[in-house]
Each structure stands twice: as C-alpha cells, then as structure tokens.
Design a protein that fits this description.
The protein is mostly helical and about 270 residues long. It is about 55% helix and about 5% strand. The protein has a two-stranded antiparallel sheet with strand order 1-2. A two-stranded antiparallel ribbon has the order 3-4. Helix 7 crosses helix 10.
C-alpha cells in the first residue's frame, strides 16, 4: 500500500491515467463503430447510390449537397447535418412523412409520406453510409408477443408520460411544440424515435433503456391501444383537467337549466 501511495504522488501519475483513459475510450469506440459498420454492411451499394440520387433531388436544398447541413438556397431556412444520424433517423422522419417538411414551423408534423418503402430504405442507406449512427431495429425487438406490457408501462410512466401523457394521448409543450399521441404509430417508428430523439424528444440509447425494455414499452402502448376506452368517453385522455372542465361546463349548465325549469313550473 505504501508503494502504491508513492506511485500516486508521482508527477507522471496523472499523465499515465490520462493515457490509459484515452486508450480505453478509443477501444470502446472502435468496438461500437465496428458493430455499426457490420449492420450497415448488409446494405447494398445500389441502395446507397439510388439513395444519394433521391437525396440530391429532394433533400439537398436544406441539408446540403453532402448532407453537411447549412443555409438553404433561399438563405432563410436551413437543415441540420445528417452525418452520423443513422438509418433509423431517416426511416422515422421520412417513413412518417415528417420529412420533407411541408412548411417551416416549431417542429415537423406527421403527414402522408412522400416516398414509398423502397425509396425510404434507399435514403436511409445513403445517410447511414455517411457516418455511424442508430440502425433500423431488428425484428426481434419489435415482436410485442415477447414483450412485457406491465414492465413497459412502468418504464413509460417514468420516462415518457410527462410529455406524451400517461395514456400516450400526447400533450402540449412550450413555444408551439408538442408531444404527439402514440395511438396507431407502428412499433418500428416508436423504437426509432426512442433511439434517435426526434424533435424535442430526448435520446434513449441502449444504456438508458435496453432493446428488450424498448420492446416492453412498445408492448404496453399496443396493449392500451387495443383496449380502447373501456370506461366510456375518454375526453381526449387528458385526465382530470378535461374531466373537471366537462363537469363545470356541462354539469353546472344542466343543474342551472333544471333549476330554471323547476322555477318556471312553480310560478
């Protein structure tokens, strides 16, 4: 212990620790990069080539000719860099119709998609070839029959309900932004949103929520989606605010109306 204590006081000890930390960090990054490259290697060169053509024709105006981002041709709008966002980000944004954007606003809105599944796959392949990033999820993590809805509900309430509402009905955020409702959203797009963090959503990587737990969340959302509203009219699933407003507006109106009716009858 005495020798170890003397070594810690050596003037080169801090430098040695820094070098060791850099070596470990580089090693971990290399392993992760190789894993991402292995996933991207399943994409054909023709998909990347066709995706580049689609990108130049439809996306480069805002995102730049090399997807590096920057000001658009009109000098007013701009798109972020897409280098390193991964195939999952493109598949989500394009597959839900959010990209290309219909108009500038606080956030991109879901709309009918402009590209078919094959074209979306090609665009995702091209962007993925520019830098490593989250890949499109494997089918095993989308199979809700293997998920645990109860556990997924717990994870959802802890990490997602503050924005998306406990019933996944969505909710308003600041400055005209909002968390969308999740009813009818495909499991693949839910998973991709978790790993890419679109719009105002934080990124939930595998260190935050494991792929198996993401599957549990999807299983929970699909369970409440299939159940509907067993209690009757859900009032937008907004909780006590909408329920209280309903009582005050319609309940009191009914009471006042009934009171007036009784008064007229007695007179």
């Amino acid at each position: 212990m005495k020798k170890l204590s003397q070594f810690r006081r050596h003037p080169l000890a801090a430098l040695a620790l820094l070098v060791l930390a850099l070596v470990v960090t580089g090693g971990v990054y290399a392993v992760v990069s190789n894993a991402n490259v292995a996933q991207a290697s399943t994409t054909s060169a023709s998909d990347i080539e066709e995706g580049q053509k689609l990108f130049l024709a439809n996306c480069a105006t805002c995102h730049g000719l090399n997807a590096q981002g920057g000001p658009a041709a009109d000098g007013k709008t701009s798109g972020p860099s897409l280098i390193g966002v991964g195939a999952a980000s493109v598949d989500f944004q394009v597959g839900t119709g959010r990209m290309p954007m219909q108009m500038q606003g606080p956030q991109a809105r879901k709309k009918p998609k402009m590209f078919n599944d094959e074209q979306t796959k090609q665009l995702a392949a091209y962007v993925a070839s520019l830098g490593t990033g989250p890949a499109i999820p494997e089918q095993q993590y989308l199979d809700v029959s293997k998920g645990d809805p109860a556990k997924g509900g717990e994870i959802f309430r802890v990490n997602c309900a503050m924005c998306h509402n406990a019933a996944a009905a969505g909710g308003a955020l600041t400055q005209g932004k909002f968390a969308p409702g999740l009813d009818g959203v495909s499991g693949k797009h839910i998973y991709e949103a978790m790993v890419t963090g679109p719009q105002n959503m934080p990124v939930f990587n595998d260190a935050n929520i494991t792929p198996e737990n993401k599957r549990d969340v999807i299983a929970f959302l699909k369970t409440i989606e299939s159940q509907g509203s067993p209690g009757g009219f859900n009032l937008g699933s907004l909780g006590p605010v909408s329920e209280g407003l309903f009582i005050w507006v319609f309940g009191l109106t009914a009471v006042i109306g009934f009171t007036i009716w009784l008064t007229r009858r007695s007179s």
